Amino acid sequence: GLSDAAILAESTGQGNAGFDFKQNMTQVIDNFTVLRGKHSYKFGIDWQHVYDERTAAPQFIYTFPTTQAYLDAKAGTNPFGYTTVTQLTGELGFNMSTNIFSAFVQDDWQVASSLKLLYGLRYDLYKYPEGLPNAPLAQTHEFNIDRNNIGPRFGMAWQIDSDTVLRASTGIMFDQAILGGYEQALQLSGSPRAPLYTFNPTSAGAPAFPGTTGTGTIAQQSPWAVDSDFQVAHTWQSSAQIQRALGSEMTVSLSAMYAKGDQLPVVTDVNLINPTGTLSDGRPIYSTAVNASTRVDPRFNHINQVQSIGDSTFKSMTVQATKRMKQGLTFNMQYSLGKGLDNTPLLTQLTVQSEAGRSDPSNLDRDEGPNPLDMRHNFTGNIVYASQNSSDNAVVRGLLNANEIGVLLQFNSGLPINIPANRDLNLDGSTSDRPIGVARNALYLPTRKNVDLRYTRWVPIHGSVRAEIIAELKNVFNTEQLSNVVTSTPVDAAGNPVSPVSYDAYQYPNASGYEQRKFQLGFRMRF
User: Fold this and answer.
1) Confidence of residue 1 (pLDDT cuts 50, 70, 90)
2) Cβ distance 503 to 437 under 8 Å?
3) pLDDT band at 326 (very low <50, low <70, confident <90, very high)
4) Among 489, 486, 493, 366, which Cα is nearest to 427's?
């Protein structure tokens, strides 16, 4: 059986049965260049019309903190032992249209034979879908259009001497249009059209497992919205690289990068007020009752609003060595040291690399920590050797020529994982709470060490007809490579871990890994 810590949730539901997604895109894009002396002027426009038709899957989901809690509810001994229950019903299909426009102007200026400058501007405008004038929430009547997305950029390349080049660039880059929040706001608007109900066990009207919820009224719904002041996220990115040639075959480079993100999207429950207490680390505890003293808008339980309030930083340094093909050998090796921090634990509705969401609706910085892709050390490389032999012996020459061996190397520190508590500590309806004293994404997976090998040989048959033998070996040394574990941690009534929290990933259950050694053999004829 599974231990309590191995279970994030036990639920009843319909999965993705009934889900449907259709998206049509129309795009017009044109770029052109005008050459004038030492200047190369570039202009471009890009217009996209995105039409979405979506049908959500009906949901009826109970989430339990442990396996035993589920078994007790199923047996009828504790039918309110769940963490939350969610039900989505009603008219689940809808459509929306989005228009995306961008334009840029840029000049590549060859100031001198050894110096080139690049400077320009880019403008992005996203015309989001029409709102719902009759929606209960004013934020959904009309969505804000951010019209000041002007991104300057500058770059340069300077050949210091015959063997050394310095490159540098800086600029503001605006994020692509993230439509998930608008989809949620339109579909789950809080109207009786497609009601979304969420309950804690102590909420008024909470069902006993396995009962259903909701009666088609607005009460106890938990709609989505987009902040009326929502702005497009942007990053300021700067980088510099110095590259030097070592002889005619080898080049080495050292580069550094810094990126600062602002106005990043965050989902916040904006309907919670007047906490009834606090956890020992200062997190407010909210009431599960829904009334004018516990909710900003007592018509609803939770209001999940997409806000542009997050920020991030990323710093990295990369050392790279490249050897051009000579005497049958070429390779490219690089090592990066980096660090990425943010306070934006995005939900799956907004990103593929999702997290459980905010742990404290009142303090965004409580979730400041490593982002899910924070890989501190990363070494990658590829080596290719094509055998060459000029022996006078035709047999020897035939055996030692036309062989090609490729090696892929990947050695990197593991990605961070969050350690959540096994229940909702602050009663905000979210399962994103961490035990007392545990920071966001505090556990790192073990180092990944992987070597792949590919062997190719050409065999002449007749004239231009050749056969190719391909042999591939994944994970040559059959190294164990952990990709994920279940980290849900039992806590006591105060939110403290029942047992000391381990920061060794191998101490957690339900481990999954990358593929073990795999051999593939293939043949191909070329005429």
Assistant:
1) very low
2) no
3) confident
4) 493
Q: pTM for the full model?
A: 0.84
Q: Tokens 């608007």 identify what position?
A: 189
Q: In a 10 Å sphere around its CB, with 0-12 CB exposed, 13-18 middle and 19+ buried, how is residue 152 labelled?
A: exposed
Distance CA 28, CA 99 (A): 12
Torsion-angle region of 205 (φ positive above 0: left; ψ -120 to 50: alpha; else: beta): left
Six-digit token string for 504: 């060794």
Q: In this structure, are residues 268 and 304 in contact, taking their beta carbons and an 8 Å threshold?
A: yes
Cα torsion at 12, 16, 18, 24 (round to 10°)? 160
- Binning pLDDT at 50, 70 and 90, where does residue 327 land? confident
CB 181 within 8 A of CB 152: no
CA–CA distance, 292 with 300 (Å, rounded to integer): 10
Distance separating alpha carbons of residues 207 and 199, to the nearest angstrom: 8
State both tokens at 418: 């969050």
Q: Which residue in this structure is represented by tokens 């059986």?
A: 1
DSSP result, 431-499: S----TT--TT-EEPPPEEEEEEEEEEEEEEETTEEEEEEEEEESTT----EEE----B-B-TTS-BSS
Rounded to an integer, what distance in angstroms lies between the CA atom of residue 250 and that of residue 245? 6
Helix (H, G, I), strand (E, B), or coil: what is residue 400?
helix
Question: How far apart are the C-alpha atoms of 438 and 510, rounded to whole Å?
Answer: 21
The DSSP bridge partners found for residue 106 are 42, 120
Rounded CA separation 46/142 (Å): 25
Tokens of 446: 């073990």
- DSSP secondary structure letters along 61-85: EEE-SSHHHHHHHHHTS-TT--SEE
Beta bridge pairs of residue 137:
none
130-164 per-position pLDDT tens digit: 999 989 999 999 999 999 999 999 999 999 999 99
